[in-house]
Amino acid sequence: MLYYLFEYLEKTYQFPGASLFQFLSFRAAMAILTSLLISTVYGKRIILYLQKKQVGETVRDLGLDGQTQKSGTPTMGGLIIIFATIIPVLLFSKLDNVYIQLLLITTLWMGAIGFLDDYIKVFKKDKEGLKGRFKIIGQVGLGIIVGVTLYFHPQVTIKEKLQETISEIQLVQGFDEEAKSLKTTIPMLKNNEFDYGDLIGWMHNDFSHYAWLIFIPIVVFIITAVSNGANLTDGIDGLAAGSSAIIVLTLGIFAWVSGNIIFSDYLNIMYIPRVSELVIYIAAFVGSLIGFLWYNAFPAQIFMGDTGSLTIGGIIAVIAIAVRKELLIPVLCGIFLIENLSVIFQVGYFKYSRKKYGVGKRIFKMAPLHHHYQKLGYHESKIVTRFWIVGILLAIISLVTLKLR
């Protein structure tokens, strides 16, 4: 909103300083400062309000050290993250940008699903919360909206490098015109662009316009997997928020270079018009996560609940798809992946061993993986810090793929 106000003041009255809002870096800086201010200052008020309403977490006794002391800690802290993200985005971004609109829908959609789950747990005293099938329906619904928009919306385009062959030498000749494309980036390969349309177009050229039958289910799968991964990671103080901040900051760098024609040209990567506006959203989101950590770091004064974890996962997935880096998710979101796999392997092996030997056996002392280390006697803070370090290493590896091919 402020962007349009100052754009008007600049054009009409040449208002001093109004031109600053034309700079992406200035608006991103203002977004992260505003989100930090909201999450730290007003976050405390939200915590006090939740305490007053007795919106406390009911902790099941799993035999973990310090677990019983957490009972009664306010949950639904994801509201802090949501408010601290949306308000700066509304103030400083271009609201007619399709990527911003998609992320606002994602935030509200996943936030509503998570809030309903937390509401049932807290107020209906149902520890199971929202039934799993309804969560999946919500995630699939969002995936369809995102997939359809990215496939059909005329503003979702790319510009490819023009190449000319002279005497068997390929010369890059700038960028082609904007074009609709389902191309994405395959990390660590020399010719690292892959078109989803090829998955169906190889059968017959006439089938290429049915590529949405492949693309949309892939989008649905990614959003569902990442949001559930973030949900599983939210098990000890500061783990999900800190790990997510590292991931989102990395995606912000990808959005910045992919949306800047100069950097895209220098790095020889796909140029995605208008995607640089995601930097504003990402700045606000990172600020809200860091501000939330102020209260969520050990010992936590508030938990994000599913209101926060499902929302975080959904946002990360949509950003990754928008910047054409979804195939990098297994590396960048490695913490989420490991947490997911630890649960899958634990449950799968338990069922297999019980069927084969008559007694269920476990791979880990407890799943998800962070609880395994708690059972080994590691303190929460040490587990979280080491997971963050792994997350930073994975983020660096992800950034290196810009040139490592």
Main attributes?
405 residues, 15 helices, mainly alpha, 5% strand, single chain, 4 strands, two-stranded antiparallel ribbon, globular
The amount of helix comes to: 55-70%
Shape: globular
Instruction: Name the quaternary structure.
Output: single chain
- The N- to C-terminal Cα distance equals 41 Å
H/E series, N to C?
A: HHHHHEEEEHHHHHHHHHH
How would you characterize the overall build of this protein?
This protein is mostly helical. It has one domain. Helix content is 61%, strand content 5%. It is built from 15 helices and 4 strands. It has a two-stranded antiparallel ribbon with strand order 1-2. β3 (183-185) and β4 (193-195) form a beta hairpin. α2 packs parallel to α10 and α4 runs antiparallel to α11. It starts with a helix and ends in a 5-residue tail after the last helix. The model has no long low-confidence stretch (mean pLDDT 88).
